[in-house]
Amino acid sequence: MGIKFVSPFQSILLQKRLCVGCTASLDKAKRLGKLSQRRELLECKCKRRYVYNKELNEYQRATLQEEQQFLRELNKKPLV
Ligand SMILES: [Zn+2]
């Protein structure tokens, strides 16, 4: 964790909208919530997290910062 390096192989998978861990379609990944107007946090079935950028229509790996931002937002709301 915490390594910025993304291998070319991972980039290709993300361009194809596939999870870099299990190659499942990210279009079917669970939507956890919005990070901002244009960005949504997703979680694949293998628990890897991604950010979907609506503006660019592409997926990126979620950074630790983005995950923490989301968890903070989540804590503001009562759990159902
Ligand atoms: Zn996956």
Q: Could you characterize the architecture of this molecule?
A:
By secondary structure, the chain is an alpha+beta fold. It is built from two helices and four strands; from the N terminus they run H-E-E-E-E-H. It has helices at 8-15, 64-76; strands at residues 30-34, 39-43, 49-53, 58-61. The chain has a domain at 27-80. Strands 1-2-3-4 form a four-stranded antiparallel β-sheet, with helices on one face. Zinc ion binds next to loops. Zinc ion (ZN) binds at residues 19, 21-22, 24, 44-46, 48.
Q: Please, what is the average pLDDT?
A: 88
Q: Distance between termini?
A: 30 Å
Please provide the count of β strands: 4
What order do the strands of the largest sheet run in, or round the barrel if closed?
1-2-3-4
What hetero molecules are in the model?
A: zinc ion
Largest sheet: 4 strands, antiparallel
* Overall 3D shape: globular
Series of secondary-structure elements, N-terminal to C-terminal: HEEEEH
